[in-house]
Every structure is written in C-alpha cells, then in structure tokens.
Amino acid sequence: MYVILDIETTGGKYNEEGVTEIAIHKFDGHKVVDQFISLVNPEKEIQPFVVNLTGINNNMLRTAPKFYEVAKRIVEITEDAVIVAHNAQFDYRILRTEFRRLGFNFERKTLCTVELAKQLLPDAESYSLGKLVRSLGIPVSDRHRANGDALATLQLFKLLLSKDLDKTIFKSVLRTETQGELSPRQLDMVDELPSETGVYYMHNKDGDIILLGKSSNIKKRVNQYFTNNSPKARRIQKETKRVSYEKTGNELAALLKENAELLRNRPKYNNHYKKRLFSHGIYQSNNQNGYIALAAEIINPKKKAVATFNSLQGAENFLHSLREEFQLCNKINGLSQAKMHCSHFENNSCLGGCINQEPVEAYNARVIQAIDKYSFSKKSVLIMDKGREIGERCGIEIKDGVFKGLGYFNLNHQINNIHILESIITPMEGNENTTHIISSYLRKKKVLKIIELNQ
C-alpha cells in the first residue's frame, strides 16, 4: 500500500517551517482507496515568496485546523503504507519535525518519484514535477497546491510502476518488510486480487518472482494454483509469500507483458517457456505461371514468413479463410492435391488458378491485399484497445513493422502529440515472438482501433 503525499509549508529556516496544507491519497497500486486533504494553521507567518508561489495566505489559515488536530488522521491513513512523494526527503522531514514537536516519533518507509524517474526515465530533460509531468502529457492543475501536486505525483507514480518491468519498486518495498511465515492478511491474498485481465506475479520471501502468467481472471487463476494438489503446485504454495498483479485492461497487452517479463525475470516455475512460440508459417513465392502462391510450411529460419502459427492445421485453416475473404485459389496455394483442377473448378467457382482464366495482375493484387491486411511488415501503427479504467486506452506501438512497447493514455489529452506518445510508451523488445503474438491475436479478435502513425 502506498500513500501519495504533498505538503505546502510556510518557508523559512530549516526545520522551523510549518505545514500550511497537506494532501494524501492512499493508493493500493491500482486505485485510490482513501484520501485526506486539508489546509493547516501553522501558527506562524507565511513567507511572502511562498504566498506568491502557492496563493495560500495567512487569512486563509486562521480558521484551519492546527497540526495536532489532523495528526491522528495522518497517522491512520499512512499506517502500514509507504510514503511516495516528489522529493520525498523534504516532505518526510517536515512531517517528522511536526510530529516531534508533539512528542511523537513518526516513522514510515518512503519512495521518491524523483529518484525513481531518474532510473526509469533516464532521458527526461528535467525532473522537477511541473516540467516532468508536462513532458509526459500528464494533466496538472493547481500547481504548487498540495492536492494538485499530489494528484500529478500519483499519475507519475502510476506511469513509473508500468515502466518498472523488473519490479524493482515492489522488491525494494518487500525486502524491507518483516520476513517470516504468512500473515493473516497474506493468507487472504487471493481475496484481494481482481477478477480482471492482467499479469500476476508470485513472490518468495526475498521479493523475487517465482511464477508469473497472464489471465483474463487473475483471482481465479491464482486461486487454482493455491487449491491444486500437484507436487509443483504445493511447492509454489509453500514458497509464495506475496502475490502482486498488474491490470492491463485487455488480453493483447497481457500477452505482451507476460512474454517480456518471462524473458526478463526467468521465474523458476515458468520452465516451460519456449524460445519460439510458433512452429509453422505461410511463405510467399511465385509459381511457374507468375501467380503469387501462399504455402503453409514448417518454420524455415532462412525465409521470412508472411504469418506464423502453432500448427500446420492452423496455417492451412488460415489459407482457407483467405480464399473465402479474398477469393484466392486453393490449387495455387497448395491446399488442393488435384493433378489438374481444384474442387472448385468443377462447379465453376474456381477463379482461374487452375486454367489461368484470370489475369495474373488481377489475381496477385488480391493476394498482396491479403498479405497487407494480415502483416505489419514495414508498417508504423498504434493498436488501440481497452485500458485499465474508464476514460483510458491502451496503445501498442509498432514502428517499421517492429513492436516497440505499450502504454496507457488519457482519452482527452495524451494521444494528440506524437512526442508525448513516444515518452509514455514503455519500451519493450520486439522480436519474432512479439510479432507472432500480435498477428495471431488480431487474426482471432478485434481491437478498438488501429491508427497509422506519421513518421
């Protein structure tokens, strides 16, 4: 659990500042579950430059609660949570100073989004909150007010979590926690999982991922591991000390994240992972009469496949569907073993591959159209699908035919600017497996939209 926090102060000498405003959003890694926002009477004058910066003046604070009146609420909302702030050292110091004045020792774990951004966004021009969030297309209002800055930090932290493919944020938190046997809360961890699409991670006592996978129902899938009696499942149950998850909003994003993170993390119980996810492909050639032939064959690393499949039957079924959609010839494509004519010749539904009754150029134009529809070779597009919440979309970027990564966008803001798009996309390795995952998915299922990207 995290608490995203921002504090405004009076300014002044070090450790003599007073709190004028505080905003706290309790965040479970997926949604805000509690919040506390309040002006605070610092019982001292605000420095003039601070008034100009924040707009908060002494008159506004005369009737506001004093710090001791909000202290209990701050303790409660931050209990068992990690404080996340932009320049966390400052906010945490201010809080500890205020509590020391009350005779209370306030201690919490902290994460600083400045330091995290430097690790996960190394090419950013500036790490000041205002410039950083604007460069990422994150909307910010009420800048230099506690709640405005806290909400901007929350959106930034969500982005950093999505870019943290190695789960260093989660590990850094988990390793500082008390180790030991499962707590009552951990025994109920399945109940805390969502029945939604995403990727789940099973961690051992050191925070290392021992198993991960994608599912359209995370809760159901993890529950199956915990109720299975196989020897492997029992070992997983014994070693698992925590389950985390990442909602993706759609199955294609889950498949791509699963593929990328299996390669990165190599969990000990995912030993079934294949180096190549496909066994057969469809290859293009020209027959003796000049017609473009599409043939289903076992994978040949020396040739570039038009499309890839998990079986010969799957590849041949796809060729049959192309015949129906684009009026292609089974004889040309090797699906008919007839010596003279294909089965469609007898009922006059053959398009001429058998007897060359259609001009080569006209037939080949349809083949090229079919290849273009089901191949991303040399294309630059953004595949848009459902996001993790209302008002959000998931974008999967393909550049020059190669998968580049994915990210999440606010419908009303972030997708308008190509530079913002590039900064928000989390880079992921594109290879023959990611091409297979994307192409296979799009052959079977629909996405919301495919947008061509201007170079």
Automatic annotation (TrEMBL):
GO BP annotation list: DNA replication proofreading; nucleotide-excision repair
PROSITE patterns in UniProt: GIY_YIG
A single MF term (Gene Ontology): DNA binding
Record's GO cellular component terms: cytosol
Annotated GIY-YIG domain residues: 195-271
Coiled-coil zones: none
Database matches in NCBIfam families: dnaq
Subunit structure of this chain's protein: DNA polymerase III contains a core (composed of alpha, epsilon and theta chains) that associates with a tau subunit. This core dimerizes to form the POLIII' complex. PolIII' associates with the gamma complex (composed of gamma, delta, delta', psi and chi chains) and with the beta chain to form the complete DNA polymerase III complex.
Biological function: DNA polymerase III is a complex, multichain enzyme responsible for most of the replicative synthesis in bacteria. The epsilon subunit contain the editing function and is a proofreading 3'-5' exonuclease.
Full protein name: DNA polymerase-3 subunit epsilon
Organism: Arenibacter echinorum
Upper classification of the organism: Bacteria, Pseudomonadati, Bacteroidota, Flavobacteriia, Flavobacteriales
